[in-house]
Amino acid sequence: MMHVEVQIPMLDISYEFEVDEGKAVKGLVGDIISLIEQKESVSYAGRENACLYAWEQECVLNGKESLCGQGVKNGDQLLLL
Questions:
Q1: pLDDT of residue 50
Q2: What's this model's pTM, rounded to 2 decimal places?
Q3: Which own/partner pairs from 22-29 qualify as long-range (CB within 8 Å, at least 24 positions apart)?
Q4: Burial, 80: exposed, middle or buried (Cβ in 10 Å; 0-12, 13-18, 19+)?
Q5: Whole-number Å distance between alpha carbons of 8 and 71
Q6: d(CA 33, CA 60)
Q7: Would you state the pLDDT for residue 77?
Q8: Are 54 and 61 in contact (CB under 8 A)?
Q9: What's the rounded Cα separation, in Å, for the pair 4 and 79?
Q10: Rounded mean pLDDT of 60-68?
Q11: What is the pLDDT of residue 52?
Q12: Cα→Cα distances 38→18, 20, 44, 49, 78, Å
């Protein structure tokens, strides 16, 4: 498990998440969106096209690969797009 900060620009908030660094990013995105929808009582319209941008790597993460497989480390900041 690792901790990452996920920024959600459409809501102008960020959350600290503990995530499974070995899980595919696409699955993590779905989990993160579900938690945000519950916490903020909103619906994320672009759910099927959502992705994560990694500030440290300066790229959109591949949904089929894991966080650690793409160089994301504990404490990194991600942006939900």
A1: 95
A2: 0.90
A3: 22/66, 22/68, 23/66, 23/67, 24/63, 24/64, 24/65, 24/66, 25/51, 25/52, 25/61, 25/62, 25/63, 25/64, 25/65, 25/66, 25/67, 25/70, 26/63, 26/64, 28/52, 28/67, 29/63, 29/80
A4: buried
A5: 21
A6: 17
A7: 98
A8: yes
A9: 10
A10: 97
A11: 97
A12: 17, 20, 11, 19, 20
- Location of structure tokens 């690969």: 65
Residue 7, φ and ψ in degrees, nearest 5: -95, 135
Residues 6+ apart with CB under 8 A from 46: none
Cβ atoms 36, 29 nearer than 8 A: no
Residue type (1 letter), 63: G
DSSP 7-31: EETTTTEEEEEEE-TTSBHHHHHHH
